[in-house]
Write a structure and sequence with these properties.
101 residues, mainly alpha, globular, binds zinc ion
Length: 101
């Protein structure tokens, strides 16, 4: 999974979450925008880039506890709704990863 592809998936998940939970249309609320920017920055700063191991195995736990909790909620909510957008196997893996982190 490349960084670019991962970004697309994260954006989609946050969009689904924001629309469903915060009742926004066509654009993200401030809170979700902040979360999205934060996630993108983490990815940009990831020293492993395209050779990134799964975040669970990564020696660098780069999300702050607060942001990690937020992204966890987003994935929990949007994960099951993402099957139309992303390979199912990857998604399962990602959800497991978040659950156990
Ligand atoms: Zn929102």
């Amino acid at each position: 999974m490349s960084i670019e592809k991962e970004k697309k998936v994260i954006r989609k998940m946050i969009e689904i979450y924001c629309k469903g939970k915060h009742k926004t249309y066509h654009q993200l609320c401030e809170e979700c925008k902040t979360l999205l920017n934060y996630s993108f920055t983490r990815l940009d700063l990831c020293p492993f880039k395209d050779n990134k191991p799964s975040c669970k195995k990564c020696p660098i736990h780069c999300y702050s506890p607060e942001m990690r909790e937020k992204i966890r909620l987003v994935m929990k909510y949007s994960g099951p709704r993402m099957i139309f957008y992303t390979p199912l196997e990857w998604l399962k893996h990602k959800i497991e990863e978040i659950k156990h982190s």
